[in-house]
Amino acid sequence: MAASTLARGRAGQEVRGGAALLRGTVTLYLSLIVVLPLTAVVWRSSRDGWGAFWEAATQPQALAALRLTFAVALAVAAGNVVMGTVIAWVLVRDQFPGKRVVNALIDLPFALPTIVAGITLLALYGSSSPVGVDIGYTRAGVVLALAFVTLPFVVRSVQPVLLTMEPDMEEAARCLGAGPLTSFRRIVLPTIAPALLAGAALAFARAVGEFGSVVILSGNIPYRTEVASVHVFSLVENDDVGSAAAVSVVLLATSVLVLAGLNLLQRRRTRHAD
Amino acid sequence: MKVRAKFAAGLLAAGMLLAAGCGGSGGGSDKLTLVAYSTPREAYEQLIPAFQKTEAGKGVGFSQSYGSSGDQSRAVQNGLAADVVTLALEPDMTKLVDAGLVAEGWNADEHKGMITNSVVVFIVRKGNPKNIRTWDDLIKPGVEVIEPNPFTSGGAKWNIMAAYGAQLQGGKTPEQANAYLLELFRHVPVQDKSAREALQTFIGGKGDVMLAYENEAINAQQKEQPVDYVVPDDTILIENPIAVASKSKNATAASAFVDFLRSEEAQRMYAERGYRPVNQAAAAGAGFPEPPGLFTIKDLGGWTDVNKRFFDKEAGIVADIERTVGVSVGS
Fold first, then answer.
1. What's the CA gap between A31 and A24, in Å, rounded?
2. Distance (Å, rounded) from C-alpha B328 to C-alpha B155?
3. Looking at the domain covering B118-237+292-329, what would its CATH class be?
4. Is residue A60 within 8 angstroms of chain B, CB to CB?
5. Which residues contact B168 (CB under 8 A, 6 or more apart)?
6. pLDDT score, position B3
7. Taking CB atoms and an 8 Å cutoff, what residues of chain A touch B190?
8. Closest A-chain CA to B147
9. Is A21 on the interface with B (CB under 8 A)?
């Protein structure tokens, strides 16, 4: 009894000490596995001077690869916003046999090594396609590969929000004469928007960095289907690590910008909502 | 301030941990580390036990590492402890010489540092339905050529230099040979990142002909893949280098292993796997056809010159071709 009172007396202090320890652990861990490696990449890219950095990042083949990467990543993120929401909606609001199986399927692209995903997608949608679709080694193939690997992000971020949403508000809206589209636009969309944006941002970032599946499915034709990660790989293969780091830094910087932009948008939304 | 100090302390601790992690690696007393490019793996699975049965190889243990030639060269440069290094092409070895990890005189022996040879061939569908025999057949309308990306696959450079050299051999000017390469690339629908992936693509049904090493073609046939291959009259001699690492702690055993690999017995084993022996006695009995117009990379100026002229990512001929083909097809 007495001991427990004593402990309670020191509890505040202990908690503070514990928090500091936790914070230190987090800092150390993040430094080791994120901050230091990223800093090293940036440092490596600038080692040969900014002239060399600029030259590497704006070299025509690098530019073509970067342009393709960002265009496809944006398209895939946008596609995920639509399809991810639809899938999440169906999984939450609809009841049908086999729903649990469908729900489990969503996460599989995470579990599959992406190079295997590339090979299987190619077998299905390549030149010897059993369904008669041949988009292997084209830009459509790149989109397909990235749509596959980014599928879970939007679904998994929107789904929990939909689950916690009570249907009362929508019912009220409908009683007041709003059609299903209007009630979705005015009631559901504002609620899921932050989760939707967060999911889209993750999908975008993932698409920008994807290597394993696109290297198989795209055919790696410079200026046509070669994405930035594959271009970086080719620079490394040619012992041009400086240029590889430079192109990587452009990828990093753009992803940071997009993530920060979406974060800002989200915060503004929340403030408006308040 | 406080937060920043803590962050700095974290970084410092991280750095110390990293530094500590770099120590302590190295071989045991009679253990050899073989660092090799990936294709001859099956040959070494046979060659190493054979070596261990010889007087010099008794009790020598092995650890083996396989990967793409460029990756392996980089790994050794970055500190992978190696005793014997064998790579797909000479420039990857030259980098190790430049880094002081392989002795300058590594290629001074009678085989010029090489362990196996091969030639660039055309792998075709069983029965050669499109009747592909010559380099000119590759650029006929409707023929699709599978060829890995020369900027990601060191081996693909051999194919391109074979195509180029064959044109010169046929009396073309360098300009005409460049034009041939451009035309050839127009027939390439996919550029896989490695030779093995390209072979997968071809076996998967894409393309009419694939440019590849003879040993890869033989390997595919040994695995009962439905392919044939054609050795063109004019083609390049592929030479694969081997060397003992200068920092080897077991140089005697390593040299003995390399000597064994060059023996008639070992070279026969290579031959069974589709490699052309460098050992004359083994080569004589192996029955590889001798292409009448065989040339070497030296005939084209040597690797240093070829890499600069063809594969420089800015000014190289092949970089220029990729640009022309990629941009024109566009969309």
1. 10
2. 26
3. alpha beta
4. yes
5. B174, B177, B300
6. 46
7. 136-137, 219-221
8. A219
9. no
Helix (H, G, I), strand (E, B) or coil at B46: helix
What are the tens digits of pLDDT across the range A181-208?
888 888 899 999 999 999 999 999 999 9
Tokens of A53: 């950095």
| Least CB–CB distance from A221: residue in B13, B14, B326 | B326
Report residue A3 as tokens.
């001991």
CB of A232 less than 8 A from some CB of B: no
CATH superfamily of B26-116+239-286: Periplasmic binding protein-like II (3.40.190.10)
Paired tokens of A217: 């499915």
Confirm whether the ipTM is greater than 0.85. Answer: no
Indicate the SS3 state at residue A48. Answer: coil
Same fold, B26-116+239-286 and B118-237+292-329: yes
Which pair of structure tokens corresponds to residue B166? 């064959």
B120-168 residue pLDDT tens: 999 999 999 999 999 999 999 999 999 999 888 877 899 999 999 999 9
Structure tokens at B146: 């599978």
Listed residue (A236, A229, A233, A234) closest to A208, CA to CA: A229
Please state the domain extents for chain B: 26-116+239-286, 118-237+292-329
- Beta-carbon contacts of B291 under 8 Å, excluding residues fewer than 6 positions away, are B119, B231, B232, B233, B234, B235
- Give pLDDT, residue A272: 62
A128 contact B CB<8A? yes
CA closest to B157 among chain A residues: A238
Q: Using CB atoms, which residue from B193, B323, B329 is nearest to A233?
A: B193
Chain B residues near residue A222 by CB distance under 8 angstroms = 149, 151, 191, 322-323, 326
Of B253, B290, B262, B203, the C-alpha closest to B28 is: B253
List chain B residues with CB under 8 Å of A230.
152, 193
Do the beta carbons of residue A203 and residue A185 sit within 8 Å?
A: no
- B208's CB contacts (< 8 A; 6+ apart) are B124, B125, B130, B132, B143, B144, B145
- CA–CA min distance A127, chain B (Å): 6
Work out the minimum CA distance from A237 to partner chain B, whole angstroms. 6
- Min Cα distance B158 → chain A (Å) is 15
Say whether residue B6 is in contact with chain A using an 8 A CB cutoff.
yes
Tell whether domain A49-273 is in CATH 1.10.3720.10. Answer: yes
Task: Report CB contact under 8 Å: A223, B322.
Answer: yes
Q: Is residue A61 less than 8 Å (CB to CB) from chain B?
A: yes
Q: What is the pLDDT of residue B23?
A: 35
Choose the closest CB to B204 out of A59, A128, A233.
A128
| B189 shares contact with chain A (CB less than 8 Å) | yes
A271 — pLDDT class (breaks 50, 70, 90): low
How many CB atoms lie under 10 A from the CB of residue A219? Answer: 27
What tokens were used for B249?
Answer: 């702690």
